[in-house]
Amino acid sequence: MDTTIAHGSFSIERRYNASPAQVYAAWSDIETKARWFIGPEGWTLLKRTLEFRVGGQEVLQGRLSNGMETLFTACFHHLTPNERIVYVYDMHLNGKHHSLSLATVEFTPAERGTRMLFTEQVAYLDGTDGAQGVAMREHGTAAHLDRLGRLLS
Fold first, then answer.
1. Which residue ranges make up each domain of the chain?
2. Most CB contacts within 10 A, which of 56, 61, 79, 114?
């Protein structure tokens, strides 16, 4: 059994032509979030739930075109409407605990919209190389946030 834990972190900043309330709502409403928080091309949804409150949980389970199943389970720890979301989430790949992350999302009014800062601190539990894992996670998160931007424009 591999007991090595690899750590990493990254931040992504985006500017959206929408108010902080609109951007926050895109995270808090299950129907809106289902339009941008999805897997990559060829991914099929198996389960989605969202209980957006402190202590509430979010679940997103799907299957990639290669057959791999992904399971994202999050718990919301701190919510300040239109300003901040803090949650912890686990990622499982084919039933194996892949990673555990602390994510913060900050919304700041900006000229013509909102500045959003997403920061993630991740621990890879399955032997994943930290640098490689962070690069892949950052790429996937950026794709989500780009879809969010297209939705808000």
1. 6-152
2. 114
CA gap 107, 97 in Å, rounded? 30
Query: What is the value of pTM for the model shown?
Result: 0.95
Q: What is the mean pLDDT of each run of 10 residues along the chain (153 residues)?
A: 84 98 98 96 96 98 96 98 98 97 98 96 95 96 97 94
37 Cβ neighbours under 8 A, 6+ residues apart:
60, 144, 147, 148
Question: In this structure, how many other beta carbons lie within 10 angstroms of the beta carbon of residue 130?
Answer: 16
Q: How far apart are CA 34 and CA 21, in angstroms?
A: 18
Looking at residue 68, what DSSP letter applies?
-
The strand pairing partners of 69, in sequence order, are: 63
22: helix, coil or strand? helix
